[in-house]
Specification:
Elements: E1 2-8, H1 15-29, E2 32-37, H2 58-61, E3 73-76, E4 79-82, H3 89-100, H4 104-110, E5 118-126, H5 134-138, E6 141-147, H6 150-161, H7 165-171, E7 175-182, H8 187-200, E8 204-209, H9 212-219, H10 224-227, H11 232-247, E9 251-252, E10 255-256
Parallel strand pairs: 1-5, 1-6, 2-4, 2-5, 6-7, 7-8
Antiparallel strand pairs: 3-4, 9-10
Helix pairs in contact: 1-11, 6-8
The chain binds adenosine-5'-diphosphate and magnesium ion.
Adenosine-5'-diphosphate is lined by residues 8, 11-17, 43, 125, 180-181, 208, 210-212, 214-215, 218, 233.
Length: 278
């Protein structure tokens, strides 16, 4: 199993959207996927047709004497979800305390896995770059979602120089980037993407075009692969899922089925999509 943690330095960049759809793409490759929402906005569930009036979630029961496995909702044969739920201030503060205690949250998250081919994919959302986070410290891979805009370019020197958990994850080959909302229609925006890819390669796991199909899929509460399977974003997200599959190969009876020759892989790190751009 592997614990993959999606996070972003600011809101609105597409962290939740990519978490939901990457999960579906990984299921299509053959993984068991458990999607977990750690964001009080409780928005991950909106991507799936869960009853809107169902308040159930992690926040109600995270400290109860119950296995977290019992809190998940099955979405399909290969995908389960653990929504965040609706929280009171007191519950939120208790959950924040738990997140600060080393090893505790990641241990619980790992119990959600029932097979060697399970990927627990967490929507952790906004994270202050310089902070220490036990979840980042423990995740097998942290995926930092950046929007392909000038604001993210301005953040890059901070990303590269800040101390804290992300820096350590980077040094240990546990950091990757997802660049989202790429728009190649203007020269400036193309230059921004090229700069980001050049600077962040070889840690770029995926680059996803700006594509209205993603917003339409959310409005319909279904995955992009049902809404617009041949869209640019669907192709990009599938490609990112295949890159992840190279790092966490499917195993059946001890045989790696997704392992490929090492071309494009960095030692101990994620595959670069840079060379294949655009
Ligand atoms: N690649 C994309 N193309 C077009 N719209 C996108 C894309 N990614 C995300 N969005 C839209 O951006 C908005 C914010 O996305 P969301 O995933 O909620 O961001 P976050 O979790 O980072 O706050 C949503 O309306 C979503 O549909
Ligand atoms: Mg979000």
């Amino acid at each position: 199993m592997a614990l993959i943690n999606l996070l972003s330095p600011k809101g609105g960049v597409g962290c939740t959207t990519l978490c939901a759809n990457l999960g579906m793409a990984l299921e299509h490759l053959g993984y068991q996927v458990v999607l977990v929402d750690l964001d009080p906005q409780n928005a991950l569930r909106l991507h799936f047709q869960l009853p809107l009036n169902d308040p159930q979630g992690l926040i109600d029961r995270f400290d109860a004497d119950v296995e977290w496995r019992q809190l998940v909702t099955r979405l399909s044969d290969g995908v389960d979800i653990l929504p965040f739920g609706n929280a009171s201030d007191a519950r939120l503060s208790g959950f924040a305390d738990m997140q600060r205690r080393p090893g505790e949250l990641s241990h619980r998250l790992r119990t959600l896995s029932q097979t060697p081919n399970t990927l627990v994919v967490v929507d952790a959302n906004v994270f202050p770059l310089c902070e220490v986070s036990p979840l980042i410290d423990d995740a097998d891979l942290n995926l930092l979602v950046l929007m392909a805009d000038a604001g993210s370019v301005a953040l890059m020197p901070r990303l590269e120089s800040q101390p804290g958990s992300l820096r350590q994850a980077s040094e240990q080959g546990r950091l990757g980037y997802l660049i989202n909302q790429i728009d190649t229609r203007s020269r400036l925006k193309r230059e921004i993407v090229e700069l980001m890819l050049k600077r962040l390669a070889p840690l770029v796991v995926g680059a996803v075009h700006r594509d209205e199909s993603l917003a339409e899929a959310l409005a319909e509460q279904r995955s992009l692969f049902e809404q617009a399977p041949f869209s640019a974003a669907a192709r990009d997200i599938e490609k990112a899922a295949r890159t992840l599959a190279q790092q966490f190969p499917l195993r059946f009876a001890g045989i790696d089925t997704t392992a490929r020759p090492a071309a494009g892989l960095t030692p101990g790190g994620v595959a670069s999509t840079h060379a294949k751009w655009p």
